[in-house]
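Consider the tokenized backbone below.
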């Protein structure tokens, strides 16, 4: 359907996003959290891998409606933090609470249903499925009808299917990928794949969207556009946790920033304070704070 757009530069595709598309999260069960209140709490979390302490007594909150930056040098524990928030790993001690309730030993799919979605540092799409099908997988995470009812084409299943298709299409439209709905994910240009992963995560109607270096491999112009997109996503009613290495961009898009180094939280605050924080500067420059 979109022969003319084959291999469109990621840059060009971003400019075609449709901010008017309705992608707001759908209502989910459970307690309501008001704007500005604690949505997720990382409470004194330690995670050890053998001798490596990947997270060391880390605590911070994510408040509803904010864009929180999670930064720190390579190996600081940022991705590990996502992993304990999404059920990939259980903390060695401490806990993560979502809407006031501990995640406990919940599995990944249970946490998706609770309302936390993520993208991966290394893209993980279903390469042999189309862009639309990849997003439909996300929508299906919330549907109640299973294989049995699908076989009998029950009315409810048909309703969910139609609804899923509409929502997935809207998300592709928002991301500037509507013209590529029928292309296999693996054939999409790199930038489109990154955005498709975000669309799939949004399809689960998360209350918290966690993005692990979504702009990795982008040039500065593409990065700036992606940050604009993230702001638009927040404006549609999502709370965002963002890992991003480019300090200038992260300062421009986030409301608050948490800084990790060697598994410890070394700073937390508004971007202006983080920029001038000696411990943060030392962590990034690799200099001894006392010597500087
Ligand atoms: N499954 C694992 N087994 C053993 N060690 C691990 C495992 N996952 C992470 N680590 C270690 O935990 C530490 C934190 O890694 P993590 O991937 O969270 O860092 P990061 O801040 O995301 O870094 P980057 O910016 O490079 O992505 C590193 O020392 C890493 O080697
Ligand atoms: Mg990482």
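A designed sequence for it:
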């Amino acid at each position: 359907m979109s022969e003319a757009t084959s291999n469109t530069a990621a840059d060009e595709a971003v400019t075609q996003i449709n901010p008017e598309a309705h992608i707001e999260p759908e209502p989910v069960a459970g307690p309501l959290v008001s704007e500005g209140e604690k949505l997720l709490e990382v409470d004194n979390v330690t995670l050890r891998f053998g001798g490596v302490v990947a997270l060391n007594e880390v605590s911070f909150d994510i408040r509803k409606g904010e864009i929180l930056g999670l930064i720190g040098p390579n190996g600081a524990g940022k991705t590990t933090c996502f992993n304990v928030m999404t059920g990939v790993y259980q903390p060695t001690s401490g806990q993560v609470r979502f809407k006031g309730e501990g995640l406990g030993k919940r599995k990944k799919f249970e946490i998706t249903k609770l309302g936390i979605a993520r993208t991966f540092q290394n893209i993980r799409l279903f390469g042999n499925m189309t862009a639309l099908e990849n997003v439909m997988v996300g929508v299906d995470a919330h549907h109640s009808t299973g294989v049995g009812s699908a076989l009998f084409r029950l009315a409810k299943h048909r309703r969910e299917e139609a609804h899923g298709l509409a929502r997935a299409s809207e998300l592709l439209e928002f991301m500037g990928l509507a013209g590529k709905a029928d292309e296999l994910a693996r054939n999409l240009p790199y930038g489109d794949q990154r955005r498709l992963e975000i669309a799939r995560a949004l399809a689960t109607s998360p209350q918290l969207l966690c993005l692990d270096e979504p702009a990795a491999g982008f040039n500065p112009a593409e990065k700036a556009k992606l940050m604009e997109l993230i702001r638009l996503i927040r404006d549609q009613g999502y709370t965002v946790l963002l890992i991003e290495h480019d300090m200038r961009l992260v300062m421009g898009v986030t409301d608050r920033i948490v800084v990790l180094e060697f598994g410890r939280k070394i700073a937390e605050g508004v971007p202006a304070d983080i920029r001038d924080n000696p411990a943060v500067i030392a962590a990034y420059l690799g200099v001894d704070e006392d010597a500087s």
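The chain is about 35% helix and 20% strand.
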